[in-house]
Amino acid sequence: MSVTSLYPVLMSRDVDAAASFYRDFIGFETTFESDWYVSLRLGEFELAILAHDHSTVPAGYRELPRGVIVNLEVSDVDAVHKQLAGRTEVNVVLPLRDEDFGQRHFIIAAPDGVLLDIIQPVAPSEDYASAYVQP
């Protein structure tokens, strides 16, 4: 198989509001927009928003996402935290912190129950360093 692209499509009850969130707070740009589907791009990365009740979603699967965390790795998580955490429209659900497994991160609530984990990789503790596989 020759994969040419791979990107998440998040189902939403309000496609316009969800797309606006990713545009306004994260910096995505719209590459396609309709009332039921929006395709977004940030550099080489893509994300799409789809109306959860659209006919292209198979019957029985037209529910909003639950338990979805989208990781967004950045070069300076402190700067992103400073930019977002002070905004009243942004709900920080996990404060900025360091993890022994090699992340400095914080989590914000995105539309439709999705969590956005904004991460800067950092050196892991000794306990976790051996868990990383070198290619």
TrEMBL record:
Pfam families: Glyoxalase (PF00903). It comes from the Bacteria. Residues 4-121 form the VOC domain. This is Glyoxalase. It comes from Brevibacterium sediminis.
